[in-house]
Design goal:
This protein is mainly alpha-helical. It has two domains: 1-64, no CATH class; 66-100. Helix content is 86%, strand content 0%. It has four helices and no strands. The chain has helices at residues 3-17, 21-31, 36-62, 67-99. The N and C termini lie far apart (61 Å).
Length: 100
């Protein structure tokens, strides 16, 4: 097993998951429940399953799509998502500046 790859994957996913919607949803569910272990097991299982699907999909895509193109497509995907998330902020800033 490639321990460097294992550690870098763990660190990347761990840092990416801190403060994201998944963690916030887990905090919200845990706050309304008196069974934090069940919430943890459900959340952890969902993350493991989503990661498995991602790893299998990425592995199969890499067999017929060059890795550089795959990284470029992923970059554009993240850029698109980021711009979509920023759009309401930009619109509210434009409305605020027009009202002044």
């Amino acid at each position: 097993m490639d321990l460097t790859l294992l550690f870098s994957t763990f660190l990347t996913v761990f840092l990416a998951e801190l403060g994201d919607k998944t963690q916030l949803a887990t905090v919200a569910i845990s706050g309304t429940s008196n069974r934090p272990v069940a919430v943890f097991l459900g959340s952890a299982s969902a993350l493991v399953l989503a990661s498995l699907i991602g790893a299998l999909a990425g592995g199969s895509m890499a067999s017929f799509i060059p890795s550089d193109l795959l990284q470029l497509l992923a970059s554009f995907g993240f850029l698109f998502i980021g711009l979509r998330l920023l759009r309401p902020l930009i619109r509210s800033t434009d409305v605020t500046s027009e009202n002044q």
